[in-house]
Amino acid sequence: MQLSREDLLDAYRAMKTMREFDERLHIEFATGEIPGFVHLYCGEEASGAGICAHLDDRDHIASNHRGHGHCIAKGCDVVGMMAEIYGKETGLCGGKGGSMHIADLEKGMMGANGIVGAGTPLVCGAALSAKTLGTGGVAVAFTGDGGSNQGAVYESMNLAAVWNLPAIFVFENNGYGEASASSWATAGGSIARRADGFGIPQVTVDGADYFAVREAAGEAVARARAGEGPSVIVCEMRRLHGPFGGDPQTYRTEEELAEVRATRDPITRFVARVREAGLLEEADFAAVDEEVGALIERAVSEAKAAKVPAVETLADHVYSSY
Amino acid sequence: MNTSTSTPAKPKTFRAAINEALKQEMRRDERVIVMGEDVAGGRGGPAGTEEAWGGPFGMTKGLIKEFGPGRVLDTPITEAAFVGAATGAAMTGLRPVVEIMFVDFMAVAFDQILNQMAKIKYMFGGKATLPITVRCLYGAGFRAGAQHSQCLYPMLTHIPGLKVAIPASPYEAKGMLAAAIRDDDPVFFFEHKATLGMREAVPDEEYVIPLGQARTMREGKDVTIVAIGRMALFAAKAAETLAGEGIDCELVDPRTTSPFDREAILKSVRKTGRLVVVDEAYPRCNMATDIAALAAQEVFRDLRAAPRMVSPPHTSVPFGGPLEDAYVPSPARIAEAVYAVMNDK
In total, how many domains does chain A have? Predict the structure, then answer.
């Protein structure tokens, strides 16, 4: 796979933005200023970035509770995202959604989701729209290893195969469903092989390897756009933090965490590989780092300064008309 | 809206009225699609039939012939997937009409209904439109047992973001289904099994009965009966009998439980001072308790008697004949409740 300099910079910028966004939330959450829950995507960035690199405005994604990275990958406004997480009226959802419900349909982002596995049926619908309306679009569901055991996911994979939909089911196996190991919770030992039962092409990739994810996604997206039906991609990865902000991770060992940080950080690996190949230089990374740092700083300061929603808007947006 | 008719309206069944509304709405807007279990039927069978059934009860007959398999989609028996797919399709430009064969089956799709369909618009700060109609059969009286006979519309009425329509008869069904399909919000549309064969004059032309407008089926001065769906027909029978006995009932059919025409009911109760509410749904937290509470709060001083609620007992719907007959509220039980409020002095 040969990527242009622009592709590489875009990939690095996307992953770095996801990382800085969630690392900053990790810090800010501890101050108590952020309401509710936050689920951090740190360590999983290559998946969102590698998959969404193939998508454009025709295409839709549905995410899960760990959705910040997917939103950024699909082009959601980072400043609006941060304001949403702070519950402010300038947020992407006007402060009515929060971290677990960030959405922007204009960008094809059908929402993070507080219910594990629940985005997969929605993606079948978006894929059906693309097929029926002839937009050429595809639809991608991001589900975790935990979600991979939900019934709605299998119903959706079956429906996508029966209807021959341009749908892609991405399973991000970060090793743990909350505090339980996915190897314990997932019978049969393989998420990917479950796709065989539906006759859906499947592949498992190293989810910390941006290039591997991007290559697998390219094949799946091409298959979907060609009218050849759904695909399954399993990204094997490890999260750098707990499932939600503030988890002390008592179920993991120091050795595992050290090993993950040393060998399974997708950004570290991307930088090393690109630098070794001489495709980008130190100054290129530094320029992106500066740009991303400034963006996150602006997002946080604007979010903190923004107004909370007016109480008068409490009952708005329940219906189009009532 | 067109409620005038150029030709005399012909008697049509409830089933035919639904079918006609579906066809007219699909002709009117090519974004309208229909999906559900065997809405055409015969997929993949050895006979190679294009349409084996046209819906388990024939309501979608002829649709695939006119509109093709791209707009009339048979589904596997997987309500969570196809109800969720309807939501996703509505978010991205289509106007799905999805059939849950029996409303009881909504249980297996309930996350997609409760946490997705109902909440997406609100969670997104209004930046989503969900024009979905969910048609479902409901009600007891068919010896169908506990899992194919429930009403369940109070559970859906409870949920912000959903609308709920319960037409009593063929004329009502055609106009309300057109309104539901043209609506930009999710509408659950209830069709009572026992009324599918009922005939009533239904115009050939399109017409719309707006959601949220009750109808007064009968004017009267002594007592207000509020009754929903099939129970509105039973209440009309009871009112007929009572009229012969000199009791003048006013009968109000709310038509939709969400949105809900509070004013029509309160206005009638202010006039008569007496209220009987009839609901085929389970008796706890149903429409009868809701409407009785509304009257108690809003028109307490206009009431001349305590409101009465007529509902089944707090049990599952029984299978056996005498048990099911005893379960469903009858015109006689409605009349008894009317006597009770008339004699409550």
Answer: 1
The B residues from 93 to 132 touching A (CB cutoff 8 Å) are 93-94, 96, 111-112, 115-116, 120-129
Yes or no: say if A296 and A21 are a contact pair by the CB < 8 Å rule.
yes
- Whether A317 is in a domain gets the answer no
Residues B252 and B143 in one domain: no
Q: B210 in a domain, yes or no? A: no
B97 SS3 class: strand
Q: Give the domain range for residue B236.
A: 215-343
Query: A187 in a domain, yes or no?
Result: yes
Shortest distance between the Cα of A95 and any Cα of chain B, in A, equals: 7
Do B161 and A103 count as a contact with CB atoms less than 8 A apart?
no
Look at A125 and B90 and tell me if their CB atoms are within 8 Å: yes
Domain enclosing residue A73, as ranges: 5-200+209-305
The reply to whether B275 and B307 lie within a common domain is yes
Task: Name the 3-class secondary structure at B340.
Answer: helix
CATH of the domain at B247: 3.40.50.920
Same domain? B261 vs B195: no
| Minimal CA separation from A124 to chain B, in Å | 5
Residue in B76, B80, B124 nearest the CB of A162: B76
Establish if A105 belongs to a structural domain: yes
Handedness of CA A293, A295, A300, A304 (dihedral sign): positive
The reported pTM is: 0.96
Q: In this structure, what are the phi and psi dihedrals at residue B226, rounded to the nearest 5 degrees?
A: -105, 125
Note if B314 is an active site residue: no
Residue B1 inside a domain? The answer is no
Give the pLDDT of chain B (345 residues) as one tens digit per residue.
Answer: 455 556 789 999 999 999 999 999 999 999 999 999 999 998 988 888 889 999 999 999 999 999 999 999 999 999 999 999 999 999 999 999 999 999 999 999 999 999 999 999 999 999 999 999 999 999 999 999 999 999 999 999 999 999 999 999 999 999 999 999 999 999 999 999 999 999 999 999 999 999 999 999 999 999 999 999 999 999 999 999 999 999 999 999 999 999 999 999 999 999 999 999 999 999 999 999 999 999 999 999 999 999 999 999 999 999 989 999 999 999 999 999 999 999 997
Option in A96, A106, A122 nearest B123 (CB): A96
Query: Same domain, yes or no, for B165 and B313?
Result: no
Residues 45 through 104 of chain B touching chain A, CB cutoff 8 Å: 70-71, 73, 75-76, 78, 80-94, 96
Q: What is the ipTM of this complex?
A: 0.96
Contact between B86 and B96 under an 8 Å Cβ cutoff? The reply is: yes
Smallest CA–CA separation between B63 and chain A, in Å? 16
> What is the count of structural domains for chain B?
2
Amino acid identity at B155: M
Of B75, B52, B34, B26, residue with least CA distance to B206: B26
- Phi, psi (rounded to 5 degrees) for B128: -160, 145
Yes or no, beta carbons of B127 and A114 under 8 Å apart: no
Choosing from B148, B158, B192, B314, the catalytic residue is B148
Identify whether residues B318 and B268 lie together within a single domain: yes
What CA–CA distance (Å, rounded) separates A78 from A68? 9
